[in-house]
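User: Before I run my own analysis I want an independent prediction to cross-check against. Here's the chain; please return only the structure tokens and, at the end, one sentence I can use as a sanity check.
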Amino acid sequence: INVTGSTYLGDVTDNAATNGRSLSETHDMTDRDYDIKASNKEATKQMGAAIAISLSEGEKGVGATGAASISTLRNDISANVKNTTIISPIVSSGALSDALMVDVACGTSLTNGMLSGAGSVSAQYTSNKTTATIDDSIIKTSDLNVSAKSNNLDVNVAGQIGYGKNGVGLAIAFNHLGSTTGAYLRGTDVTA
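Assistant: Structure tokens:
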């Protein structure tokens, strides 16, 4: 499992981490599978919360409060094979992004007086790139699998409570998700 976004080779001598570098090697593994995977399944969990409370007493009292929770997440997960010759019964290159982001914002204002106002903003910005590639290689296999999958989940909640003779409230929840997910086989000769 790759928790840092680096690319790892399984069943290869020294279990080399490629970190975006090109591999220029020959792997003759006729008796075992060649499997390269990248994943953030256990690593990316992000949570934020903001709560604000305002209390005001007196007939001319005014209460106001606001809360904001803002999160950003950038994921670049890739499993790459490049300039490599692989001989194996099964060859797999797979990338999985499985991030969770939760934000909650709540503003509360309580007063016995004239005006009570509360507001909250919860915003999330996610940039996600999940790719699996085999480029400019020679693959001799009877089973080839190149796959990329994104299972990201963003949960965003904003709310407010205003209590008084005159209450005003505003809540905004905003999500921005920019996502690229792709599996690519380019410039590669594949034979059984």
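Sanity check: The first strand starts at residue 8 and ends at 10.
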